[in-house]
Design a protein that fits this description.
Length: about 130
């Protein structure tokens, strides 16, 4: 199968939906997401907008992922560690590699790595 690059919102949605189906089934990450997110359809649309904005430099996303992750860490007794981000990144890379190849696909990996590092640091900063 010849893989295409990530080009459209539909491509981003496929990536996000496929990725989060893996996250939800993961024994370590699943509980954080499944206990926090109540409306998955809405959340997948929000995450699609986030990644579409990030990859295609559109300014449609208006949420605050830093605050959201800090709240989740607090709700789970400050138990998020670098291991969780490592699993998240491995699943993200795996999903991209299964579905896409090209410049945008590689950029999605780079942006995820930077974002994971940044959110990880912000979570620990917030613990004070």
């Amino acid at each position: 199968m010849v893989k295409q690059d990530i080009k459209t919102r539909a491509d981003v949605f496929l990536l996000v939906k496929t990725f989060y189906s893996k996250v939800r089934e993961d024994a370590i990450l699943g509980p954080f997401f499944n206990e926090t997110i109540k409306d998955w359809d809405e959340h997948l649309q929000l995450l699609t907008t986030f990644w579409e904005s990030s990859l295609f430099l559109k300014t449609r996303y208006t949420g605050d992922p830093l605050e959201a992750h800090v709240k989740v860490d607090k709700a789970f007794g400050h138990s998020i560690t670098e291991m969780h981000f490592g699993i998240w990144l491995n699943l993200w890379f795996e999903t991209i590699n299964e579905l896409f190849e090209g410049d945008y696909a590689e950029n999605a990996k780079r942006r995820a790595r930077k974002m994971a590092t940044f959110i990880h640091l912000k979570i620990f900063e917030a613990r004070g």
